[in-house]
Amino acid sequence: MHDQELEDIDGWEEEPEIITNNYMKIPQSLMIPYTIIEINEIEKSMYTCVKNVKELFAISEDNAITLLKMYKWNEDKLQQDYFANDKTVLQGCGLVPDPSTGIKEGSKTDCLICLSSLQDRPVDKLICNHVFCSDCWAMYVIVSVKSGKDCVLTRCPLVDCPIIVPKTIFDKYLSEDLRNDYIKHVCKSYTDENKAMRWCPAPGCTFLAVNESLVQVDVTCKCGYIFCFSCGGESHLPCTCDINKKWTIKSSSESENILWIMANTKSCPKCSKPIEKNQGCNHMTCSQCRHEFCWICMADWKTHGTTTGGHYKCNRYEEDSKLSKQLKEMEKKKEEAKTELAKYTFYFERYNNHDKAMKIAIKQLGEVDAKMALLNKARNIPLMELQFLKEAAIALISVRRVLKNSYAYGYYATNPNEKVIFEDLQGSLENNCDQLHRLLERDINIYAKESIVDDSPFFNYKSELVNYFEITKNFFKNFCEGVKSGLAEGNI
Asked: Which CATH number fits domain 342-487: 3.40.190.10, 1.20.120.1750, 3.30.110.70, 3.90.1150.10?
């Protein structure tokens, strides 16, 4: 199957716009084996899987394909069930008639669809012995394929018959174009329903990751994009998928607006609308219901006369024990909301700062080639000696991404002892990352002027940058492996 044969399937483009940035990979010790395959390798991979099942169970290719489709291409589960009770599996997958269904054999002289005589006409039937003329079969499978991806599990035309229509019937009655469409749908079921496979989510990318272990792992696609195999989202190391999901929902929801309202407003005693105090006076008037009340004790302003010390001095908080209890509870909730809001703000600001820095680093990576070309032309420095600029820029992106997600991780961390270790590792990585970023942002033009005779300032710069690059890589590895080895276990 060729690339152009898949052009109609969502996400499979004939001429994809490939992302060329190759970001730094996570440490090798954290890598779980996976493979990246291209579109034109999918059919080959699928039929290898079919061949394994065919030979293992000693069944036809049609039956092997059907079994795998019904089991969502999970070979291990299929083998387990098949060897436990092959008859049950075959019946459940529509490959053997089930006597309990009560489906009768049907007429052998008339087509069960058009009711025309089958005498002297080409016919076909499945193992259920329901006979249909070739014209009706052709129309049935053509409509099935044109209806979409569900054609891969098309059943016998007779109502309620569970028998699956095999691939050989489709091959027999479809034109070459529709046959190709059918293969596309089968391949699509192979890739989309197979939990060991995931398409690269980068726009226009047509590569597929295969991870038989099914363990959470960051995949570096051939297009350069790094994504989480488990959830399909952008790499979120050191967060688990659950933590990343919680953080994403939290940072994009209205929950923080509610926290701010709780921390900075009080509800009108009459209509319960939230009110913010923006002036010094405690005499409040609700803009909605025009109710007047005291900001301190929340009582009706009319009660604030000379007996309470005057209109602008309220001591009812001390006098009314019941009201005092209510106010204390209200203040407690406000303080809790303020604490939670302050905590979230702390982590979100740093998360957001690294996110912006990462985007800047990605933009700067696109400018590195021009810097290298300038130095090569102006100072005659070989491009190989300038490769350190690109390597450092690539590494910086990955470090910024991990630091960004580390604040989402830190927000939900609860174990105080391990959190201290985590923050120490995080701080060391952050400090070196900032130093590396500062060096990468230095204006290269100061080393490329024709008037400069001595190249030592440039090579001093190179030495300093490479040094920080290596140090940052080591801290990056220590941080990732530190989280992996215990900081995340049972503490979030």
From this structure: 1.20.120.1750
